[in-house]
Amino acid sequence: MLVYSLNAECPEEISDISDRYEHLLAPFERIREDHTLLVKRFHRRSPRTIEEIELELERRLTYWAPIPARVDGFGAFVDPPGGVGPVIYLTVKSPGLIELHRELVDIFGTVVETIEGDHYVPHVTVARGGERTAIRPLTEKSIESVDWLIDELVLWDARYDQPVRRYTLG
Prior knowledge:
Blueprint: E1 2-9, H1 12-20, H2 22-25, E2 28-31, E3 36-43, H3 50-61, E4 67-77, E5 87-93, H4 95-108, E6 123-130, H5 136-139, E7 146-150, E8 152-157, E9 162-168
Antiparallel strand pairs: 1-3, 1-8, 2-6, 4-5, 4-7, 5-6, 8-9
């Protein structure tokens, strides 16, 4: 069971994009209100305790400068490896984020092979579930890109739906 994740919070402009296309999201079963960017998952049954994970993240993240990221369109996972599909998301371009994810996988391993490591796709989930025909009107949309610096990461406890610790980059 997934319990912890390391996430980056998204700027308000990401929610603005979701709001702007609300009419095209209506066919989906669940529309996300909060938008975050998953960096790495941590398994409850990890050989490390959460305290050990926290300390290791602190050691590693101390050396990372803020990471540039850009949202520039919609994408979709038609048949996601976990949960209800399809999933509509905002694509995130960030070589630095991919590099950080790989470093964390080298340290902590993967939780779900099909969505971590070489399969990691940085994205911000906007909606899921519903008809596959609802994907195309969104993925064909051209949107104004949003650039930001990821300067803080949050270790999140999914069991209690709350942050465990925040890490400042740079």
